[in-house]
Amino acid sequence: MIFDDLQAVILDRKLHPREDSYVSSLLAKGRDEILKKIGEEAIEVIVASKGGNKERVVYELADLWFHCMVLMPEHGLSHEDIFRELETRFGKQGEHHE
Length: 98
Description:
Layout: H1 2-15, H2 22-29, H3 31-51, H4 54-71, H5 79-91
Helix pairs in contact: 3-4
């Protein structure tokens, strides 16, 4: 699964930084820089969606998800934590979270 592969790369770059790695450079800049990138990517998703170009929306959503994944280890989280939360929400009868 791509989430497992991405998580493995992100964790590897956190433990073994590489000079030629975007993930390593972003992690080295710290949480504030990661959060800034998430904010930028969220805005790009909005702009792409308003523009109505499906391929661009997919591209920008992938960027947003990726940068959120880079943030997760900063909090000791993985994509599995997010999946569990979504499964919990989905499993709640009569409750909808939107």
